[in-house]
Amino acid sequence: MRQEQTIVTYPARRWLILTVFLAATSCLLWRAFDLQISNQDFLRDHGDARSLRTVSIPAHRGLITDRNGEPLAVSTPVESIWAIPRELLQSGRDLVALAAALEMSSSSLNDLLQSRMHREFVYLKRQTQPKLAREIEELKLPGVYMQHEYKRFYPSGEITSHLLGFTNVDDKGQEGLELAFDDWLQGSLGSKRVLKDLLGRVVADVESIQQVSPGKPLSLSIDRRIQYLAYRELKAAVTLHSARAGMLVMLDVNTGEVMAMVNQPSYNPNNRSGLTSDRFRNRAITDVFEPGSTLKPFTIAAALQSHLYDDTSQIETSPGYLKVNDHTIKDHKNYGSLNLTNILKKSSNVGASKIALSLGPELIWQIYSNIGFGQSTGSGFPGESSGLLNDYNNWSEVELATMSFGHGIAVTALQLAQAYSVLATGGVLRPISFQKVEEPVAGKQVLPLEVVKNINRMLETVVQEGGTGLKAAVNGYRVAGKTGTAHKAIAGGYAEDRYMSVFAGLAPVSNPQLVIVVAIDEPQEGEHYGGAVAGPVFSGVMQGALRILNIAPDDLPAIESKIVVANNENPSAKVLWQ
């Protein structure tokens, strides 16, 4: 008989297993509920930590323009390439293509990354062109990222280089007006939260955290057209005379604005590789020199202001030299008896020295100090020199005599231009400005009006027949100016064959608008006198500037006489303008 098989069941075990599964399922459901609904910030925070990033938004630097709105310094968008060395090296990707794009060898790139393995940020190339950045981005290399930046560009190149200066790779002002107005031109960085993918590329903008604030624009006083004209004329003169350097400053006498300022040798701020720092300084503001006979008008001004001299006063300059203690002061030749006008016209050192010695040091020092020598012009330009004007209590007789014709005193080209602007404004000293000024600027009366009128009348003769500055004359305009030729100071005295050739003047005399100072340092070829070397530069720049600014001629009879002469020489030709 067949025995029935008994099936053994374990109900307790079944319920235990079932209970465990139910409990586990409940836990999972509860955890899912907790994470997705009750406590969803946890997952969101972890997700954000892996994909959301806060990035800075660069602010472009303020635009610099000339007085007419022409751009002189602009910021263009560029890309910088950076990497996380550990992430890039551990990816195992071939670096040949990246190295080629960066113009490096693979070994150099690898060494760079290996040496900075512990860092989280390493620049591979700063301020690249967008095309190169796109090529590198298309490589899709882990650990390689892009950073938006701005690079400064100067459309006028070396024409405005010493005036504007330049910025560094981080867009911070380093020289010139870029440095002086750095706080004004700089913007404030913005920031935003973005969503990035695994390769670090921005997928979407999530939110703005802080708005970017671009730098403020800066409108300068210079006129780019006149700046170019001044640059061209000065460079031609420095080249012609094989000079060591050259400086030129032009001021608007009604506002104190710098209309043009150029130096030679110059440099290209867009490509400064291989240049030494001495090429960057603005010589017209930082370098001092003895101005020579360009100071004689202020010695004559002191004579007129003392009421000891007038237009008819005669000074005996024979025999063409003057012994002061053990020092001999010489003229170019024996001019005999000269009035004050002819002392300036012939540029007599003896005549100026005799006047200064009769007036005493205090009055001479007071005139020089009042017109700004020995002190800053207040332009705010970085590195500006205040020149040198010693206290008159320490002057010897020789120093007083030589000071009268510009030796023993040191000035900058900008200081000298400001001093001559006093002659152009009827004796008013105005502050210097590199920013555009809309209205005439009030100043300080430092010389009597009648004295200034007399000085200007005398200085007109300097650029007329028989004067030392004939080559500085400007066709159709009355010009007042003075030449200066100073031996350069060296250790123990003055060099016999090294000169500073200077011309300073204003125009038009009937209603002065512009002052120009030209200084040529150590001309080697041809003549070395200020009238022959610096005078033609003054003439060329002043004539061009007066026409550019549409300033009416005030010497029409001179033009008409030239037309008559030209027509008489060639009756078939109709000369309308010379």
Q: What is the CATH-assigned architecture of the largest domain?
A: 3-Layer(aba) Sandwich
Mean pLDDT: 86
**SSE class:** alpha+beta
Question: What is the total number of structural domains?
Answer: 2
- Number of distinct helices: 21
State the CATH topology of the largest domain: Beta-lactamase
- Radius of gyration (CA) equals 37 Å
Report the β-strand fraction as a percent range.
Answer: 15-25%
Principal-axes geometry comes out as: elongated
Full CATH superfamily name of the largest domain: DD-peptidase/beta-lactamase superfamily
Strand count, sense and barrel status of the largest sheet are: 5 strands, mixed
- How many angstroms does the end-to-end distance come to? 149 Å
Structural account:
- The protein is of the alpha+beta class and 578 residues long.
- It has two domains: 63-219, Alpha-Beta Complex (Penicillin-binding protein 2a (Domain 2)); 224-267 and 279-566, Beta-lactamase, CATH 3.40.710.10.
- 35% of the residues lie in helices and 21% in strands.
- It is built from 21 helices and 19 strands.
- Strands 2, 3, 4, 5 and 8 form a five-stranded mixed sheet that branches. A five-stranded antiparallel sheet has the order 10-9-19-18-17, with helices on both faces.
- Helix 12 packs across helix 14, helix 12 crosses helix 15 (361-370) and helix 14 (349-359) packs across helix 16 (397-403).
- The chain is elongated and about 155 Å long.
- Mean pLDDT is 86; it is low at 572-578.
